[in-house]
Amino acid sequence: MKREVPLFITAAIGLFMILSFFVPHQVVSVPSDFLQQTAVILVAFGYVLGGANVLKINFDGIYKRKPGWAYKLVLVISLLVTVIVGLAEGRTWQDPHSMSIWIYDHLYAPMNATMFSLLAFFIASAAFRAFRIRTFEAGLLAAAALIVMMGRVPLGNVLTDWLFGLRWLPFPGVPHDLHLSTIQEWIMDVPQNAAKRAILIGAALGVMATGLRVILGIERSYLSGED
Fold it and tell me: In the chain, how long is the greatest CA-to-CA distance?
């Protein structure tokens, strides 16, 4: 019964939530809304559990003076200060002049921008190592990646302005305002979007298949981690 009851509850709730998409009656919609709100509450408890786990792991590292314990101390202090400030401000934390917004705008946002700016160099180096131009398709991928990376920054336009001005080309009808940024926008809007939609469709089909496996009781890894 330890396995059959959770499997039955999961299958019943899963089928009920699927039914709520096709039956717009309050007999179905009201319990469905209640279940969705319950899921939000469970996710909130998950955040609390995750925060407690972060504090436990970092307190242990600080107490044992593990390598990098000073950074763990900064993390713990920042976490506690942010939580205390948010609790003290209550519902006014979204006020533009609140301390929570100040912490987000002047501390979190700059650190976030710095982290992503550093990641750009790692991505570029990883792409250089990963792109082995051995086929025509790999060459197209490498060329598109180079155009996108160069076209995203103003320096790309400055370095290639002499080439993409196109005023020296004798062909009629060629636009004179073509730049590297314009080409990268076309790459992102047309071929990249097409590939992304195909990947999203495949991912959606995978999610549907996994959901059906859970509802039908085929996938049982959520039960104590065993099949």
Answer: 81
How far, in Å, CA of 150 to CA of 161, rounded? 12
Q: Which tokens is 12 given?
A: 């019943």
Give which of 33, 9, 15 is closest to 212, Cα–Cα.
15
Residue type, 134: R
Distance, in Å, from the CA atom of 122 to the CA atom of 125, rounded to the nearest integer, reads 5
pTM: 0.55
Q: Would residue 174 be called left, alpha or beta, if left means φ above 0 and alpha means ψ between -120 and 50 degrees?
A: beta
Q: Residue 1: helix, strand or coil by DSSP?
A: coil
Matching residue, tokens 């519902």: 91
Do 141 and 131 form a contact (C-beta atoms < 8 A)? yes
Report the amino acid identity of residue 9: I
Lowest mean pLDDT among 50-64, 80-94, 207-221: 207-221
Helix (H) or strand (E) holding 119: helix 109-130
Assess contact for 120 and 153: CB atoms under 8 A: no
pLDDT digits (tens, 9 = 90+) for 156-167: 777 766 665 555
> In whole angstroms, what is the distance from residue 168 CA to residue 163 CA?
9
Residues 58-115 have pLDDT tens digits of 999 998 888 889 999 999 999 999 989 988 888 887 888 889 899 999 999 999 888 8
